[in-house]
Specification:
Layout lengths: L2 H18 L9 E7 L4 E5 L13 E5 L16 H10 L4 E5 L2 H10 L4 E5 L15 E7 L5 H9 L7 E5 L3 E6 L2 H33 L1
Parallel strand pairs: 6-7
Antiparallel strand pairs: 1-2, 1-4, 2-3, 4-8, 5-6, 7-8
Helix pairs in contact: 2-4, 3-5
């Protein structure tokens, strides 16, 4: 099996799993996986596709600028330039971008702070933080409509081979050394977001009960 086909199968498997979790509402989200480093080439999701459906046109191969490497009617995902920032700045092999209700709500709650920090959660170990009192911080950037401007702002926070950035009321982009690592980071982030929002909701309900 060629390297390209191997990467294609890996990315298709991730897409399938995330689609089963309903993390691609309204054709949103995009995925990418590196095929070659020199010169850089990577597979990225085609724009406007229903990611619950599997076809031969789900992905296309692009270069270091996010431009298609072969003649095709397909268009790269609108956020391809975010993946370009990741692969040009790190040795990461896979990057994922999804829109969920939880990550959008978290980004709005803490957007004015420029980020949010989590601590006291066992799942923080998924980020390689093993200390008992470890804290994990995720930056939140504003959602510029102009994708090159968004990518430039996003790139300021791409400073490690594994990481995550929230885009306010837009979604989350994560990356890791391979598909497994990137998916692990994404799952850990979404767990933290969901847990945090549930705790806030329960605390508010408890407070209202005590006041009654």
């Amino acid at each position: 099996m060629s390297l390209l086909n191997q990467r294609l199968r890996e990315l298709a498997a991730v897409k399938r799993e995330l689609a089963e979790r309903d993390w691609f509402p309204g054709t949103s989200g995009n995925l990418a996986i590196k095929v070659k480093t020199e010169p850089l080439s990577f597979l990225v999701t085609s724009s406007g596709k229903d990611k619950r459906i599997e076809t031969n046109e789900d992905f296309l191969l692009v270069d270091q600028n996010g431009a298609a490497l072969e003649e095709t009617k397909l268009k790269p995902s609108a956020e391809t330039l975010l993946h370009v920032e990741i692969y040009n700045r790190t040795t990461a092999g896979c990057s994922l971008h999804v829109h969920t209700v939880d990550n959008n709500v978290i980004s709005e709650l803490y957007g004015d702070d420029g980020g949010v920090t989590f601590k006291g959660q066992e799942i923080i170990k998924a980020f390689g933080l093993w200390e008992e009192d470890a804290e994990w911080h995720i930056p939140i950037i504003e959602n510029a409509a102009h994708i090159p401007a968004l990518a430039a702002d996003f790139g300021k926070y791409v400073n490690g081979n594994s990481g995550a950035v929230l885009i306010r009321n837009h979604g989350i982009t994560v990356w890791g050394k391979d598909a497994f690592e990137a998916k692990k980071v994404l799952e850990a982030c979404e767990f933290l977001f969901s847990y945090h929002l549930k705790v806030l909701s329960l605390k508010q309900a408890k407070s209202l009960t005590l006041r009654a």
